[in-house]
Amino acid sequence: QVQLVESGGGLVQAGGSLGLSCAASGRTFGSYTMNWFRQAPGQEREFVAGTSWNGAMKYYADSVKGRLTISRDNAKNTAYLQMNTLQPEETAVYYCAAGLTGQCDNSSDWGCTWGQGTQVTVSS
């Protein structure tokens, strides 16, 4: 079983950049998809970015393509989300999630193991 802890959230001005990290512990990190979701106040949780277990395939919400980049380093048991040109509407709690393809990915979240979340606030 994998445990996930996000870090790197904070306050950034519109147009700025921020990098998030997701540190994993446990036995199965290298076998899991790694994903980022976000949830704004009063809103549903939405998929942001994901990567296959070997990092070969990456998926992005249409709204973040070209601005956000997901990566993973299995040797370090860490996933990353580099966020550029952030906008105020992207203010949310960002969650790291891991699981199996078809259960935790760009189209499914019922099988995800979740981190505790990290707050990202983009000011105007």
- Helix proportion range: under 10%
**C-alpha termini separation:** 40 Å
Instruction: Give the overall shape, derived from the CA principal axes.
Output: globular
Question: What is the residue-averaged pLDDT?
Answer: 94
- From N to C, what is the helix and strand string? EEEEEEEEEEE
Major sheet summary line: 7 strands, mixed
Low-pLDDT regions: none
Q: Please tell me how large the radius of gyration is.
A: 13 Å
Query: Would you tell me the structural class of the helices and strands?
Result: mainly beta
Number of strands: 11
Report the total helices: 0
Strand composition percent: over 45%
Question: Explain this structure to me?
Answer:
The chain has 124 residues and is an all-beta fold. It has strands at 2-7, 10-13, 18-26, 33-39, 46-51, 58-60, 68-73, 78-83, 92-99, 113-114, 118-123. It is globular and about 40 Å long. The termini are far apart.
Could you give a short description of this structure?
This protein has 124 residues and is an all-beta fold.
